[in-house]
Structures are given as C-alpha cells and as structure tokens.
Amino acid sequence: MKDLDLGILFFLQMAIITLACRVVGRLGRYIGQTQVVMEMVTGVLLGPSLFGLLLPQYQAALFPQKYPLVLDGVTHEVRHPSMQILYIIAQLGLVLYMFLVGVEFDVNLIKKRVGSAVLVSVSGVLVPLILGIAFGFFLHSQATVGTSVYFGPNVSSVNAALFMGASMCITAFPMLARIIMESGLARTTMGTLALGAGATDDAIAWSLLAVVLAVEEGSPQIAFLAIGGGLAFGILMMTVGKRLLNRIVIKEKEEISAAQFGVVAIALLISAWFTDFIGIYAVFGAFIAGAAMPRGPLSNQVRDKIHTLVTVVLLPVFFVYSGLNTKLSLVNTPTLWIVTLVICLIAIVGKGVACTLAARAGGEGWREAWAIGTLMNARGLMELIMLNIGLQAGIITPTLFTMMIIMAVVTTLMTSPLYRWIYGRHTVAAAASPVAN
C-alpha cells in the first residue's frame, strides 16, 4: 500500500481503533468481560500478532513503525511520525482517564479501613515482590555472552530483578475502581478494603520503578526526587490544593462555567506535568488532581463532560499502542512459553492467593476474601503503563515485554468471570457490612 499523508493516516487510524475496540468490546460481553478488558485484547489483535500476521502489508501501512530519514546522503531508520502522534494521544487519554478515576475515589472511605487495607496491601506487595525478584535474578542469569533474551545489554541483575518485582506488584487500580463502582460495592467493607489496598500497592510499585530508573540512569537523585517529590505533591494537593479548588470551583450555580472548567483543566495539566517531571509519570498527577476535586454537582459535571470522549475515543489508543509493540511470534520456543507460564503462575499466586489469605486473616469471610484476591490479581492498564516504560528505557526486551503482556492479559481476563463466579448474586445483598460511620 502507498504511504498516506500524516493527517489522513491519523484519522484513519483513530477510526479503525475506535471501531475495533467497540466491536471486540461488544463481543466480550457475551463471555462476561468488561469493555476496558477487551480493549487490551483489541490492542494485541491490531498489532503484528494477528492483523500483521494475516495482512502484514495493510497492517504495516496503517501502523508504520519505521520511517527512512536521509541525512548527509545516509539513510537512517527512525520511529515513524504517526507512531509519535499516537503515543501523544495515548498519553492524553491515560491522563484524562486517571483524572476520572481520582474524581470517583472517596478518600474518606479508605480512612475507615486503613488497618485491613494495609494488611492486604502489604501481602499483595511483599509476596509478588519477593517471587518476582527471585525470578528476575534467574532470568538475568540465563544471559549468554553478554546478551539476554529478557533484559537490555547494560541492565544489571539487581535492576532486572527489581523491575520484575515491581511489575508483579501492580494492581489494575482503574479497573478495580470501575468494577467496585459498577457492582454497588463502593460503600461496603469489601469495596473499601480493595480500593485502599490497590491504591497502596500501586504507589509502592511505582516507587520501586523510580528506584529502578534511578539506578539505570546512575543517579540516586532521581529516586529521591520521584518519591519525595511525589509525597510532597500529594500532601500539598490534598490540603492546600483542595481548599483552593473548593474556593474557585464551588459556586452557587447549577452548571459549571467555561472559566471553572478551564481552572480544572489547568490544575489537571500542571499536576500531570509535575509528576511526569519528577519521574513518577503523568498518570499519578492526574489521579491526585481528580482526588483533590471538590465533590458535588460541579465535579459530576466535569466528569460527565469528558467521560465519553475519553473512554470511547482516547483511552483505546493506549491499548492499541501497547499492542503494536506486542509480538507473540517472539515467544517462539518451548522454553519461552514455559517461562511465560511461570510468570503467570507467580503473578496469580503472589498477588491473588496472598491477598486472599491476608483478607481472611484481617477478618473477612472466605467469599469476600476470595473476591478481594481476585480483584487485586488483575494487572490491566497500570501494568501496560509500567511495561511500556520498561521497554522504552531499554530495561526489558520486546520478548520479555510480550511475555509480560500475556501475563497482564491473562490475569485481567480472569478477573470479571471469576469475581462473578465467587461473588455472584451476593454482590450487593451479601456484601460485607457497610462501613461504619
């Protein structure tokens, strides 16, 4: 196929991505999957693993990876500009989506179940962290003659192990929040406990990633800036920032004005920029900005104004962008498939089973404990973000990236049907008692 003009190509890409995600999402309902889960699957299907396998010429024309650039008579292959555009759109979708998650996050509920949430969270971090680190050391030791199938050529064994450990700790917090809200569990003991534990787990996992990137860059200041700056920013936004937003946004009006919406947008974008600047990535700034938003009719209007555009058009671009880097053909030997299976088992046992036992030890019934473990086991969106960072930083190879994507898809696909099977019609009626006031 002939190369298309960038503008024409962009609109065609967006149309195909939106259409494919809606069609696959609709099909996913028949097997009990949510839209966001099927968008992960769609990303893989539109990449080289299926579309590129069946129609390689058309897939390469629609999503070109390389572009020949001639400098001083020498041709260099660089990243195609269309992929750069898709990357920016993907980041915008992520930031706006995490803002929406923050708007729906009730901090007061978490405060009332801190003890149990910490117990589940600690178990959900320590066990997968230890197992992931141990397996990371093992995979790094398999390198031959200075090359590794799994990690970049200059990645140390310690950094490789830490990255594997951090990747195993991740919980699909946005998906977790959506399931809990849609299931009517937001104000129950179980829902609150799962939300608190998921948020804490992801904060710890991203702090570990900051350490990994700091070591990779050879600068401990990166880790100090990321962790210290992130904590300071979170405290500042939830105190001073929250009060300022209350004064500016809350007015005696039934409908939010353009000026008020502009203030919210500026606060969101500055928050995303700052956390990206200090090394903990824009999604966390967006989430904190959402959590700091004053609750009430106006915040609901902000959410309603951007929700459909984000979830239907922008966020799917991120899943497809990740899928374009996922090549199942790279996992092409029995050994690599065995390693992939071990990664999946470590993820399920380290996260799902550990959180289940911790919830039971914290006083939850077995039904509630297994439901919490199932929800915590999903990796979803947050895992994809971390893996993309690891791939771009050269910490992991495309082969390990693909294997970890398989793990993320498997653990996320398990969540909805397994959760319904465990909790079923008891979702609301037999939920743990409501949180005490």
- Mind summarizing the main beta sheet? 2 strands, antiparallel
Alpha-carbon Rg, integer: 22 Å
Strand tally is 2
Give the DSSP E fraction (strand runs of 2 or more residues). Answer: under 5%
Helical coverage, percent range:
over 70%
Which secondary-structure class do the elements indicate? mainly alpha
The overall number of domains is 2
Record the strand order, biggest sheet. Answer: 1-2
Instruction: Tell me the name of the CATH class of the largest domain.
Output: Mainly Alpha
Ends: how far apart?
Answer: 64 Å
Secondary structure tally, helices: 19
The CATH architecture designation of the largest domain is: Up-down Bundle
Q: Uncertain spans, ≥5 residues at pLDDT below 50?
A: 428-437
| Average pLDDT, all residues | 81
Q: What general outline do the C-alpha atoms trace?
A: globular
CATH topology of the largest domain: Na+/H+ antiporter like fold
In N-to-C order, the SSE pattern is HHHHEEHHHHHHHHHHHHHHH
Polypeptide structure, described:
- There is one protein chain.
- The chain is mainly alpha-helical.
- It folds into two domains: 6-68 and 76-85, no CATH class; 86-428, Na+/H+ antiporter like fold (Up-down Bundle), CATH 1.20.1530.
- 75% of the residues lie in helices and 3% in strands.
- The protein is built from 19 helices and two strands.
- The protein has helices at residues 6-29, 35-46, 51-54, 56-62, 81-103, 107-111, 114-141, 157-169, 173-182, 189-217, 220-249, 258-278, 282-292, 297-324, 334-361, 366-377, 380-392, 398-423, 426-429; strands at residues 66-71, 74-79.
- It has a two-stranded antiparallel ribbon with strand order 1-2.
- The protein is globular.
- The chain starts with 5 loop residues before the first helix and ends in an 8-residue tail after the last helix.
